[in-house]
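Revision sheet: structure tokens.
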Amino acid sequence: MTVVTVTIKKSGDLVYEPNNKVRRGQPVRFVLDPLNGPLWAKVNPPACLVATNSVTLDQTSAAPPIYEDPVSESAEFTTYSFTVEVPLLPEKPHFGGEAETKNGNLDVTTDPPKL
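Predicted:
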């Protein structure tokens, strides 16, 4: 099953690969853009994922700045919103500074994947 990747850019823009349509059980991965990403981002996942606790991705820690979780098998077929908080530009080198919130969404669908 294809992983849907949400790449977080330094500007806070969200890029969906291949798109924002997901199916039950499909993995969704949130990553900081390795070339043009913020130092950190706080992901408030959509309610359609199995885990819905906020996760902070941090490029300065030893852990990889990736969060992956599957879409719940009981998720309704609808659009789920989520938010990502990124530091304001120019970035502050510490957590707890001012952040900007970006909105995104995942569309849980029964449509077959497009090849």
